[in-house]
Amino acid sequence: MPESISKSSNQEETHHQSKFLSKYLFGALSILLLAFLSSTYISQNCLEFLKTKMFPKSNFVLPPLLEANQLHEILKEKNFDQNYRVIEAFFSDKFHQNFDQEHVPKAIYFDALHGADSNDYIPKNIPSVEKFEEYVSFLGISNEHHVIIYDRSENGFLVSGRAWYLFKMFGHEKVSILNGGLSFWKKSKFDLTNDLFSPTKTKFKANYNKNMIRNFEDIQNNIKTKEMVLIDSRESESFNKVHPEKGIKEHIPNSVNIPYSSLFDLENALLKNPSELKKLFENNDVDLNRPMIISCMFGVRSCTTAFAAHLSGAKSFSLYPGSWNEYHQKIKE
C-alpha cells in the first residue's frame, strides 16, 4: 500500500477514535456534573436547564394512539427518561400491589381519581387544577414529557381514556394511549418488570380548559337549544331501557347512543382504526364538526368515546362527569 494512502487511512481512523472518545467522555462528564449539582443547593430550574442542554429532547411527535411494538422500540431510546413517561392508570391506590408484581418497564402507577372531590352524584369526579398539578409533579412528570398511558382492562382503555382526558383537559397535548393496554402488551410477549421507576419530583403547570367539562345545568340548557350533539356511551340495553312507571327510555333527551363496546375490534380487542371510528360516528348521524357533549353512566367510558372522536377529527368535545348517574337523580328532585 502506498505510504500516502496508509497515512491517510491511519489519520482517518485516529480521527474517528477521537470523535468516539470525545462523545462518550462528554456524556460521562455530563452525568458526573449533574450528579454533583443534584447534591448541592442549585435550584431545580437551573438543573433542568442544564439537562436540556446536555441531553437534547426528541423532536419526534408520537401519535395519540400508540401500538405495542412502537412503545417497545421507544423504550430502547437512550434519552427515554428525558423525553417520556409511561403511566399505568387505575382508580384509587388499592391495586398498587398488582402493579408492583409486574408492569411495563419504566411505568409509574397513576391514580386517576387522586385529588377528586367525589360525591353521590359524581362518584368518579375530576380533581382540581391544584391537586392535579401537585400529583403529576410529584410523580416526576413535567410539561416537557410525552405521557404514554395504559391500563389493565380488557381493551386497555377503561381507565386510560379518563387519564388521557385529564391530561388533555389540563392542557397537556403530548399524550398517547397504548392500544390494547397491558393485555395486548403481554400477548405480544414484550418485557414486564417488577423494578420500580421513581423519577425525581419535577414541575408540571396545568392550563385548564373549562370548556371540556359540562354540568347538569349545561345539559338542561342544551336539551332546549340543541347546540351540541349529546352522545351516550352506555351499552344499548341500558340506553334503551324503559322506565317501568313512566314508560320513557332512560337516557338524556336528544342523546345519540354510541356504545363503548362498538369502539373496539372484537377479534383482537384493540381500538378500531380512525377511519372505522369516523364511519361509526357518521353512521350514527354525528357531525364531527359540531361541538359534542359525551356521557355514560359515571363519566368514565365516555372519555374513551371522546378519544375516538378526537382520532376521527372531531373539532370540539366535552365530558359530562355526572352523566346518567347524576342526571336521573336530579330530574327527580
Q: Based on DSSP secondary structure assignment, what is the total number of beta strands?
A: 11
Largest sheet: 5 strands, parallel
Low-confidence stretches: 1-28, 37-55
Q: How is the quaternary structure best described?
A: single chain
Instruction: Give me the strand/helix succession.
Output: HHEHHEHEHEHEHHEHEEEHEHEH
Beta-strand proportion: 5-15%
In terms of structural class, how would the helical and strand content be classed? alpha/beta
Q: What general form does the structure show? A: globular
Q: Give the strand line-up of the largest sheet.
A: 1-5-4-2-3
Radius of gyration: 24 Å
N/C terminus separation: 97 Å
**What is the average per-residue confidence, as pLDDT, rounded to a whole number?**
87
Number of helices: 13
Provide the helix percentage.
40-55%
If you had to describe this structure to a student in words, what would you say it looks like?
This protein has helices spanning 3-38, 44-54, 68-74, 80-83, 96-101, 129-138, 160-169, 181-187, 216-225, 236-239, 274-283, 301-311, 323-330, and strands spanning 65-66, 84-90, 107-111, 146-150, 175-178, 229-232, 255-257, 264-265, 270-271, 292-295, 317-319. The model is unreliable at 1-28 and 37-55 (pLDDT under 50). Helix content is 40%, strand content 12%. It starts with a helix and ends with a helix. The protein is globular and about 60 Å long. The protein has a 5-stranded parallel beta sheet with strand order 1-5-4-2-3. By secondary structure, the protein is of the alpha/beta class. 34% of the residues are buried. Helix 7 (160-169) crosses helix 12 (301-311). The chain contains 13 helices and 11 strands.
